[in-house]
Amino acid sequence: MAHHAVSAGGLRCSLVALATVLAGSSPALAQEAPAATAPQATADAAPEQGAIVVSGIRASLNASASIKRNSIAIVEAVSAEDIGKLPDVSIADSLARLPGVTAQRLEGRDQRLSIRGLGPDFSTTLLNGREQVTVGDNRGVEYDQYPSEFFKNVVVHKAADPSLIAAGISGTVDLRMLRPLAQAGRVIAVQLRGQMNGMKKLNPDGQRYGYRASATYVDKFADDTFGIAIGLSATSAPSQDERYNAWGFPTVSDTDKTLVLGGAKPYVQSNLLNRYGAVATLEYQPNDNWHSTLDVLYSHFKETQYLRGIEFPIYPGWSALTNTDTTAIQPGYTVKNGFVTDATITNVKAVMRNDYNQRKADNFSIGWNNVIGLSDTMHLTVDASYSHAKRTDFLLENYSGTGYITGGARDTLHITQNGNGTFDIVPTLDYGNAANFGITDPRGWGYNGTTAVVQAGFLNKPSFKDDLAALRASLDGEFAQGGLLKGWEVGANYSYRKKTSAFTSYFLCPKGGGTGCTPGSGTTTFAPIPQAAIIGTVPLAYLGVPRMLALDPMYLYNNAYNAVYDNRPVSLVRDNSVTEKVWTGYAMIKLDGDVGGKRLSGTVGVQGIYTDQSSNGSLSNFDSTTGAVIVTPASGGAKYWNVLPSANFALELAPATYLKLAGSLTMVRPRLDQERVNQEFSINPSNIGSTDPTRPFFSSNGGNAALRPYKSANIDLSAEHYFAKGGYVSAALYFKRLTDFVDPNNSYAYDFKSVVASLPAAIRDQIATTVGPVTAPGNTGKGTVKGAEATASLPFGLFTPALDGFGVFASVSYTDSRIVFAKNPDSPITLPGLSDWVANGSVYYEKAGFQARANYRFRSSFLAEVAGLSANPTYRTAKSEGILDAQIGYEFQPGSRFAGLAVMFQAKNLTDRPFITYQNNDPRQVIDYQRYGRDFYLTLSYKL
Question: What is the CATH number of the domain that holds 370?
Answer without folding.
Answer: 2.40.170.20
